[in-house]
Amino acid sequence: MLVKIRKPWDLPDNQVTDESTYWNRRKVLKSLGLTGTASLIGGCGLSVGGDPFGSLEDFDNPYASRFPYPRNEDFQVPERPLTDPFDATTYNNFYEFTRSKDSVHLLVGNFQIAPWQIEFAGLCNNPGVINLEDLLDQMDDITEERIYRFRCVERWAMTVPWTGFPLAALIALADPMAGANFVQMVSENRPDEMPNVDADANLPWPYFEGLTMEEAMNPLSMMVTGIYGQALPRQNGAPLRLIVPWKYGYKNIKSVIRIVFTEDQPPTFWNTIEPAEYSFLSNVDPDTPHPRWSQAEEWLLPGREPIPTMKYNGYGEFVADLYE
Q: What is the pLDDT of residue 60?
């Protein structure tokens, strides 16, 4: 029996927000003073639900007291303005909750992000679990903010200040064996808190992604715990997510709970579903089109300004030698 797996773009009509409606809604909220960097920096201007990110959710983040951390000025994006915090926290792909990008933030309130553990498994000398609070204590001295470009395979793009620590430091705790050539990461999977897991039961949950060991150890690769100087919201992958800024967004796995070290290339979520469209490497490349659209141009949020796509998302000096 042939089972057809719905693709990311096959949305039911009742889950699709008309694009003009979305941006008109954002303009209305902004006119009411419910978005923007001013409310974030001022610390007293609250948006709907009392969340300074404008995520329209009302909940406390158990990691909030750890922030902010110092910014590393070596990682800047001078040619672009920072994306408005409202847009970066209310326009997300997180299919465990919904396929509708502008609705994720409305559905994450029941997702419990504390206590949290990360498991090390596979070819490593220190298998087992570590509590996130203990991990964050160990990484406190090397946690910092970096401004990165962020590029979705769907062609929309942002410029975001992420807070976190090098993935290499996390890998060092696991102490990989000599034969560990790849790193696979796995997301949390709780259908009772993530409503679309059961709704999209034909997808191979939990979400899983992978990198070569060389990619994982690259200084750009970052485990992220915060955004815009505050703790990471649930819709952005709290409490711990990956950022590899030279790759398309779906490689940047959210809400990580398991890290597995393997000798052979591990499977990845979208590559398993549609290998012709989602390669294991998935580096941003204007010269390699997606099967259904060109990647030569991207749309910078919030106004969707069209700009040329840069190879490796502009990070070639850091990563091009990985692929020569």
A: 75
